[in-house]
Amino acid sequence: MTSRRSFLAAAGMFTASARAAASVEAKIAKKDFRGISKADLPTPCMVVDEALFEKNLRIMAEHTRSAGIQIRAHVKIHKCPEITKKQVALGAIGACCATIAESELTAAAGVKGVLMTGQAAGLNKIGRAAEVAKRSPTFMVVADDPLTVDLLNDAAGAAGIRMNVLTDVFAGLRRQGCQPGETALKLAQKIDKSKNLKLAGLMGYSGDASHTHVWAERRKRSQHDLAGLLESVELCRKSGLNVPIVTGGSTGTYNIDVGSLTELQAGSYIFMDTLYRGVGGRSDDHVYTDFDNSLTVMTTVISKTRPNECAVDYGNKATLRATDLVKGRPEVKVTPGGAEYGMLGWTEGPEYKLGERVEIYPSNLDTSTNVYDRYYIARGENIVDVWPIMGRAGAAQR
């Protein structure tokens, strides 16, 4: 039976814990991170290892400088202006955005050279794209259809601007892109002749190549998929068109597409995830070691009633997948346990304790980023900054 004294002591402890949690939020609001550690964080949450993150940034920046290729890194991986600005400070020429909402938010944050890689189809998206271009003249969009070109031209004319447009050419990924060769040439010519548009270049994204396992096979796939794009570029240039930008590529092909593209759209390299980790690198067919896993989802063990198994507060709603990996314990198997639950199972090694913190590498960065509000930046066990994820507080679309 619980005594009144022990009950009051426990109540005092819980009250102090609640006050401490409120104090952490208050300090974060003031950008005062003194005394805040990983142990203070609510879970599940995303934690970025500052040292590994900055190492990844430097590796890509050094590669692009030495290889003579630009990088316009993809925002969809992180949706965070602070990260894009760090990439630009190290030489990135802008940012790629998958959606019009990402484009609006990124351009509004002051980032120049934003390229929207998803075609703006329909009056809503095209009208909004024209408004972004009006506010940010370096903004660019893509088109794979003559109808889109006509609508973009009309919208740009109504806004009183000239909009930068790239011809989007099929490069193996079936979701988007006009046919290479003469079709791409005619579309590029149409853009170039449009009164309110400016041909900025060509794009071709070989998305299937990016996750092809084994580096040699990935190189073959990328070269195969980009052949039509390069043929289209040559046709355009021979016809007299100016094609300053040839863009595409990914983290998986960053050291393959040099010489084919003028710029890379790589994004995952900053954090990495378990799916990319398993495609293999140039020096290792099984593990991609070029970049480090710098992002984890921190969880808490919320139930521990059986040996070799426990439940954590990281479930389907927080994008848990069976392909996730536990940091420091790769032998632990991760399985879904429901909307708010994930299950950890193991046959050897120490038992987890109730309330223990467990960091887990996610499988897909895009989807994880889309359901969290912020990144906690960790220097060892200490939290040194918090970066908000744009569009998680009031945006009409994400």
For the largest beta-sheet, the strand count, sense and barrel status come to: 9 strands, mixed
- Please report the number of helical segments: 11
Please, what is the CATH homologous superfamily of the domain at 51-277? Alanine racemase
CATH topology term of the domain at 51-277: TIM Barrel
Q: pLDDT average, as an integer?
A: 93
Strand content: 15-25%
Oligomer: single chain
Radius of gyration of CA atoms, rounded to a whole number: 24 Å
| Cα distance spanning the termini | 52 Å
CATH class of the domain at 51-277: Alpha Beta
**What class would the helix/strand composition place it in?**
alpha/beta
Q: Order of SSEs, N→C? A: HEHEEHEHEHEHEHEHHEEHEEEEEEHEE
Low-confidence sequence ranges: 394-398
Shape: globular
What's the total count of β strands?
18
CATH architecture assignment name of the domain at 51-277? Alpha-Beta Barrel
Portion of residues within helices? 25-40%
SSE topology sketch:
Layout: H1 4-29, E1 45-49, H2 50-67, E2 70-71, E3 73-74, H3 81-89, E4 95-97, H4 100-108, E5 114-116, H5 123-135, E6 140-143, H6 146-159, E7 163-168, H7 182-193, E8 197-203, H8 207-210, H9 215-238, E9 245-248, E10 263-264, H10 274-277, E11 295-306, E12 309-312, E13 325-326, E14 333-336, E15 342-345, E16 357-361, H11 365-369, E17 374-379, E18 382-388
Parallel strand pairs: 1-17, 2-10, 3-4, 4-5, 6-7, 7-8, 8-9, 9-10
Antiparallel strand pairs: 1-11, 11-12, 11-16, 12-15, 13-16, 14-15, 17-18
Helix pairs in contact: 4-5, 5-6, 7-9
